[in-house]
Write a structure and sequence with these properties.
Elements: H1 2-20, H2 42-47, H3 70-74, E1 81-87, H4 92-102, H5 108-119, E2 127-130, H6 135-141, H7 145-157, E3 160-161, E4 166-168, H8 180-187, E5 191-193, E6 201-209, H9 213-224, E7 229-237
Parallel strand pairs: 1-7, 2-3, 2-6, 6-7
Antiparallel strand pairs: 4-5
Helix pairs in contact: 5-7, 8-9
The protein binds zinc ion (2 copies).
């Protein structure tokens, strides 16, 4: 496992060097070979907006003393916990969007490593399930960014990559144009759990968590099918609306 891991990272690094020429993806300075896949220089890697320590264990938003936040107390989500690596702001948003919309798959190992670092050795998870895309959206985009990231996180954490455990049965309009309150309604009934879900400890992985509506609906679906625990593993977390200013265009969740 260790050996495979090292070999895999070396291959990923070589591909990245080939694609990006060993220059930092963000500042075009010289990229470091390790530990960051030859994609970022040490300074840019250190400057990534990693989330702080005082986060709500349930939803990963800032909360004093890592207590469960007011939102989660008022309306407990179906998921049990959320682990998020980065704040969804520059330059994390650039990296996430380049993977999602421009298909720069060489960024998947980098985002996967950042998330795996945050998950750490505490993960007691059997299955990693990437948030599924509808077949139509998958065909349009050509890849599922959550799946690409999940490959690396599963490998790093020793959990089994199990995209087959959750499928999208209903296409939904993109979440981007919707108000926060409309997002939950938009994804209701959009997923189906399949296979060996009963009694399982599952991590659902996505690139960005915004309102959490999609992840909440998946957790509801998996729990209904008998999953014992469902946690979210997300690369980047957005701030709640109050901290985002007026009239923002919310980033794309995996609608
Ligand atoms: Zn740099
Ligand atoms: Zn919370």
């Amino acid at each position: 496992m260790k050996h495979n891991n090292a070999m895999f990272h070396e291959i990923a690094r070589r591909i990245a060097n080939f694609v990006f020429g060993g220059t930092c993806y963000l500042c075009r300075g010289a990229a470091e070979a390790a530990p960051n896949e030859g994609l970022l220089c040490a300074a840019c890697d250190a400057d990534l907006p990693r989330l702080g320590a005082e986060l709500c264990p349930r939803c990963a938003l800032d909360t004093p003393g890592s207590a469960i936040c007011g939102r989660c107390l008022a309306r407990p989500p179906h998921y049990d916990a959320t682990v998020a690596a980065l704040a969804y702001r520059f330059p994390a948003d650039v990296l996430v969007q380049a993977l999602k919309f421009r298909g720069e798959l060489a960024l998947a190992p980098l985002l996967g490593r950042l998330l795996a670092e945050r998950v750490g050795g505490t993960a007691r998870v059997q299955f990693v399930v990437p948030v599924p895309l509808s077949p139509a959206r998958l065909a349009e985009r050509g890849h599922n960014q959550a799946l690409e990231i999940a490959r690396h996180v599963a490998r790093a954490t020793g959990a089994r990559l199990a995209p087959e455990l959750c499928e999208r049965v209903r296409d939904t309009p993109a979440q981007t144009g919707l108000e926060w309150s409309a997002r939950a309604k938009n994804v209701r009934g959009a997923f189906r759990a399949a296979g060996l879900v009963a009694g399982a400890a599952i991590a659902v992985l996505d690139d960005v968590m915004t309102t959490g509506a999609t992840l909440d609906e998946i957790a509801r679906t998996l729990k209904q099918a008998g999953a014992a625990t469902v946690v979210n593993w997300v690369v980047a977390r957005t701030a709640p609306p109050a901290e985002r200013g007026v009239g923002p265009v919310l980033p794309q969740e995996s609608a």
